[in-house]
Amino acid sequence: MAKLDRVTVITEALDLLDEVGLDAVSTRPLAKRLGVQQPSLFWHFRSKEELLAAMAEAAMAPHATAPLPQPTDDWREWFLENTRDFRRTLLLRRDGARLHAGLLPGKADLGRITHKMAFLTGAGVPEADAQMAMLAASRFTVGCVLEEQADDRVTSESVPPIGHEAAFEAGLALILGGLIARMPDRSSSGRAGQE
Q1: What is the mean pLDDT of residues 148-176?
Q2: What biological processes does GO assign it (predicted)?
Q3: 192 CB neighbour count, 10 Å cutoff
């Protein structure tokens, strides 16, 4: 096998995650998969928690590298698509929502978050509302994907089942609707920076 490095370990760990699920990911099967002794992994990661955090960050790469909003973008459309993209990224990996849950933004993420917040406030969204809407959308999305990946739907004869995507879209529309309702009248209907 090629020289063992962090990227190789993370890549193999994510492949292992997809095969066996988060509960079965541990350093023992990962070391076996890599053809090394278990202590070799601790050269790159001091603990399983550090490895899981690196896996979560790598799993979020598709969302973390998506194009940032531009001043001419409609903030409402961007908000919806940004949240949908987050959901799609979580769904790319088995137990992706569980892996991501509780992860704090890294240094690289902070610049992107700042840009997104500046975009929303530039469109006239009050800063506190923009922060809470982004947080609510993020937590809502993680919760939806947790349910979807667990697939523990309880069916009842009195309540028709609602598809995961339909439930997600309905909830997302409610979040956006609530944000729009809190917008100052002068900026709720235009593109970023337009009045």
Answers
A1: 79
A2: negative regulation of DNA-templated transcription; response to antibiotic
A3: 21
